[in-house]
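Lay summary. Proteins are chains of building blocks that fold into shapes, and those shapes determine what they do. In this project we predict the shape from the chain. Here is one chain we studied, written as its sequence of building blocks.
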Amino acid sequence: MQTALAEPAPSLNAPAYRVWKVLADGTFRSGEDLARAEGVSRAAIGKAVNRLRALGVGVQAVTGRGYRLEEPVELLDARWLERALAVQSRSQDFALRVVPSADSTNAVLMSAARSGAADQALFAEWQTLGRGRRGRGWIAPPGRSLCFSILLQMPVLPCSVAALSLAVGVAVVERLETLGIIGLALKWPNDLLAPEGKLGGILLEMVGEPEGPCTVVVGIGLNLALTAAERDVIQQPASDLRSLTGRLPGRNRLAAELVSAVRQSAELYKQAGFAPFRERWSGYDAYAGREVVLHLPTGTVSGVAQGIDEQGSLRLKTTQGLRLFGSGEVSLRGSKP
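And here is the predicted shape, written in a compact code that computers can read:
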């Protein structure tokens, strides 16, 4: 979930990740057993536990019993995801990686895109410099969020990259609905909203030119379970899937479903542009007919949101008439962006 400007956070280093993995089932493990299994000292285990706590992982310590997570966690499993995606797409040519920690999955794949990398997905259990729009940081607690990026080779963009962001938003919301998560809306250009606040966000970046071969990196962050303390840090109303469903969803199935949805939407976008998505997006438009403020680098523009045009631009009815905007950040009048 988005916060103030991004600042580097501690990494989920290898020792902390290994301890987290052992404790994932929620049962107690003694410090001695953990140290023996990892071939390190008890002090090293203590440092790993402290690192996990610093990243927002709840770890209990009970004298005579050892350590356990406050709640079990389903860690992302690259092999499981690869098999699930191969079945869904009937294709074996899509690479997928899961890493314990990255500065930003989008940044990693943008670097790969500049080197001509093929289509692939990257998941990180933790991001030290996760980003939202306008350089804001993104709170994504390990095990209680999904943060991933997908690199897509695009021979040509039949419409703007901004419109592709809207198409991806439609694909994500529709796939969540098939999993029983209903009542969601989309805020132009790239926010996923639940009734109580922001559920997730989409960040698209591009290498190349829309008129010719280009590579698009689609970054998605989704809140699964936020603590009260994390909600206090966030500078806007927020929601998570556990609040909506009463349970923490299976992270691997959810991850596979969302990657599949994004890839399918990108294929349709390549063939038909934004046309198949426009009406569907409008059906989820959170701000249609409402008074809003559009925040731009040069200032703000107020008006009534009138949906989107065929290019995915925001239609804003202002005192100067109907105006179109291809970028910016929208908020309801009187609220923060």
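What the prediction tells us: The longest strand covers residues 197-208.
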